[in-house]
Amino acid sequence: MQLWWRDYNIFGWFRPWSREIHFWSLYHLAGLDVRPYHAVSLLLWLAVLILFSRYAWREAGPAAAIIGTTGLAALASWGAPLAWIAGCQELWLCVWTLAYLHALSRRQDLWALGGLALALLSKETAVALPVIGAAYVAFVRRDPPRAQLRRFALDAGLALAWFFWHPTLLPRLLHRGQSIGDRLSSPWLAIPYSVLSFFNLEVWPHPEGEVWAVLAQGAWRILPLLAIAFLSLRAPRPERGPAWRGRVLFAATWVAIGVGGLLTPTIGWHSYYALLAALGAWLLLGQVLERARWPAVALLSVVIVLEPLRAETPSWDWSSFAYQERAAIFGAHLRESLLQQVPTAPPHSRLYFAEIPRNIGFVTADGPAFRVLYRDSTLRGWFIGEYRPRAASEPSGSDIFLRFDGTVGLRRMVPASSPPAAVDSMRNWESDQRLLAWEFGRGGDWRRAAEQFVALGHARPSSVEYAANAGDCYRRAGEPALAEVWADRAKRLGLAPPPAQLSPRPPTKGIDR
Question: Would you say the pTM of this structure is higher than 0.85?
Fold first, then answer.
């Protein structure tokens, strides 16, 4: 039952189906072996394509289904959902969205409510589905107005109840805090970026290495998609009439609603955020191009060829395959290094990390990955900039400090330790102790900061800086006798510079920096 608790919302999102239940189930089946997680993500992606193709075939015919499914499968935006196991949340959203529309198309309205509920429990953007469903009922099913209102009231009532039950969504929208994801210079840029992402052009492809080498490496996925695209040439040409216009209007509304939701100031923008709209976009393109077969094949060919080029384009955007590939390489190295430095962690330990390479997702929130890695629910993990002293009400435990070193991986920093005998290790030791001293001070742990400067002062007895800062930190810690001792020592060494201005600062979000 804890999987459904409303107070468990990483980054403020509440997704019990696509995150808590998904990972809980796989963890109990596969443990820490990542291969089943990726296999399930691949199966979910295939489920999306199958559900989409069957829906498009039934609603719009074989030609539109072939064109739309091929274009959808060729999107580079799938890179993050497939390469990053947390991307399963987007995949589940797409699965339940299509299940919801399948139920509507069969007039199974109660089943549609179930699909909507699971979509809402998978990702917050599913709140747009009642409007998309209303467009389908109005333009495709063409129910009488009163029946349309009843249908919409069911979906909207469920979405509204979920909206107010969600633990963080309403406060986030009211206060408009920091967005999750990359904030665009203007929220309106989400519109052109999303539209370009439907064609793998939201970023101009500029892969590392030779273009032909990248295309050759991606031939295993280019050639089958091109073969499927050419199948559309042999599909029958459907007649167009009022029903076709209604389906086109529905698909256009789907795209508008999907893209419009990305203008919300609380979510930022990433290409896979536009996948909900991409489903509607390729349903629309399939119907528009179903009688213009060669232009359709030409467009599909461009999108298919651009996919590996876009995937291998270096990027700091976590929605790109290149980002996920880099993060995986660094993450594997850092996990191995962490287990070498800290084979076991005592209960209630806090892990603090410094100088982790940017944008690899190694440390997130309060460190759930480390609780899984060490199989201990009491562990926490943060960046060192978020250090604070333990509150009196907190259980006692170890604080473990690690710093990234490009030559060895993670290096453990032991506070107030004795300096090493080897001269070549002295520089690292001093740098580590200075870093800890500053972070303890900024976190308001003045006694620990003082102990760091004392260790540095003993190692560098001629340093006025270390003596003066030790005295200042002891003074702030409320220990005037020790403060006077070190202040006197600084005076004896010479004219003491003003102590460093260390002041507490509020904790920050757990993101790579």
Answer: no
